[in-house]
Design goal:
The protein is of the alpha/beta class. The chain is about 30% helix and about 25% strand. The protein has a single domain, classed as Rossmann fold, CATH 3.40.50. The chain has nine helices and eleven strands. Helix 4 packs across helix 5 and helix 5 runs parallel beside helix 6. The longest helix has 16 residues.
Amino acid sequence: MAGAALRYTGVSLGYRGTPVLTGVDLELRAGQRLALVGPNGAGKSTLIKSVLGLVPPLAGTATVLGRTPAQARGDTGYVPQTGALDADFPVTAAQVVMMGRYRRIGWWRPTRPADRRAVREALERVGLADKSRSPFGVLSGGQRQRVLLARAIAAEPRLLLLDEPFNGVDAVSQEAVLAVLRDVSAAGTALILSTHDLTVARDLADQVCLLNGRQWAAGPPELTLTAGPLRRAYGGHAVDLADGRTVLVEP
């Protein structure tokens, strides 16, 4: 697990040659947690897609686990927002989690005892062992998000990406997810998550990257989640409160 899990230097990202995010300079090591923070349309999802090798850099250099992002995809886990998976698709929670093992076993090969054990353990870690046979579509939004997290960790990734993992998630599920993320990173997996919740970013992340068309700041939460950087990234609509909380007022 030694070495950089992610290293971006002078990276610009965009589509059809048009930049949507510029000036990205980041380094993340094994076991560290990075929060991507910024308003809607800031480029957070584009950055996550680039780490997955889906959006090649227009400029700069990007390495993931010492390789190109596309080459490292097999060691990278991804947790989308719950709406990214059709809730009406006829699969159980355990079958969804087993999808995380397909890269190891192959799409057409039978599952092994080790795969079934990994699925059980992943569901136990997210507190849903009793829902293994439940149809995915009947679970609550928070439970579905926990199943998607279980799917990702069942793949045993070295780098885990989460796109707005707490949108529409109840407080119980959010706490369960946060506990798992802390455990996973303590075991050496690097984490990158995008979030609008500054409290989550402040409490969970080792590093915070403020984005809005460009990288405005990157570093520890105590340096980045302060009034000056937030006002620059959010266009002046950030207010730090005396008790340490930050309120954002967007137009």
